[in-house]
Amino acid sequence: MVIRIRGYALPHGEYVDLYADGDRWTTDPVPNAELVAEGWLLPGLVDAHTHPGAAEPGDPLDEDLLRDDLRLHVDAGVTLIRSPGLAGQPPEWFGTDPELPRASHAGPWLAQRGQFFDGWGNRVEHADLPGVAAAQAKRSGWAKIIADWRLDDEAVPVDVLTAVAEAVHGVGGRVAVHTQHAAGSTAAVRAGVDSVEHGMWLDQDLLPDMAAKGIALTPTLSGFQDMVTGLGDRPDGPAKDWLLGGTEAHGPLVAAAAEARVLVLAGTDSRPHGQVATEVRALAAAGMRPHDALGAASWSAREYLGLKGLEPGAPADAVVYARDPRTDLGLLAEPLAVILRGRRVRPSVTG
């Protein structure tokens, strides 16, 4: 069955009439195409920081759970994910299954010894980190470095991260860096990595440098806000102060990043999955324009990850809404249709 959608396409808001020619959009009419939805069109939602496939930190990758988690993303209108760190190398169907989102990934995390969750990721010596990261990025396009972890842990030095970035870029890959400390985020930006993940305690003075270098920020803002709600019963001390203070500054950081023209990406981090709309609302509440907050989970993120939007020749993904979701971000929970690879997957054709 050939499908057709029409309506006002974001980000430009112009009226379009699109037909799915296999897995590509075309404006050329296709005989007997079925009009499956019309309204306001987005080129699919994107979760740019998600770790599906493991129930608890340290658990091995579970293929059945991975499928379940990815179905939750599709239910939420997500047609593309980036997973900067997985509990293991993913199965061959990851990112290609016709019922599940397209995907890019960084394989297992790369961390310093004594840091990160036990059972997850690979512990790599500084001297070996550039080569290991480049090998991973050559396989999957991305490598993910845990630059820092607990409050008193030493961050990966800037010279090491610089060597990592150079090695990964040398094979045509990109580097994502987890950081929740000032030292780690400073090292990541000065090294010229491709994305800063979380970025709690990132110095706002670094934002112009990030914008100039094209370094994206994925703050996973809603995840930190949820975590803080459970800190009330913890004993007072430096660790609690670090988490509370960093989270308090996180929203203003996001607003300042957007103002500085840093590309902000929407990511939800861990469980539960299928919550990218919550992250979009958190970004807007922090001070991003609704247009830009939505772009962080749609057209801007797709472009950053190498996919075009709603135009001829682009991958045939879309989410359709009854009204302009920028006027009410709550509409993100109510898609009329989700189109993935030229097929309507939500609601299903039969239901």
Automatic annotation (TrEMBL):
Gene Ontology MF terms: hydrolase activity, acting on carbon-nitrogen (but not peptide) bonds
Residue ranges constituting the Amidohydrolase-related domain according to the UniProt record: 156-343
InterPro entries noted in UniProt: Amidohydro-rel, Metal-dep_hydrolase_composite, Metal_Hydrolase, Metallo-dep_Hydrolase
Pfam families: Amidohydro_1
Designated name of the protein: Imidazolonepropionase
Organism: Amycolatopsis xylanica
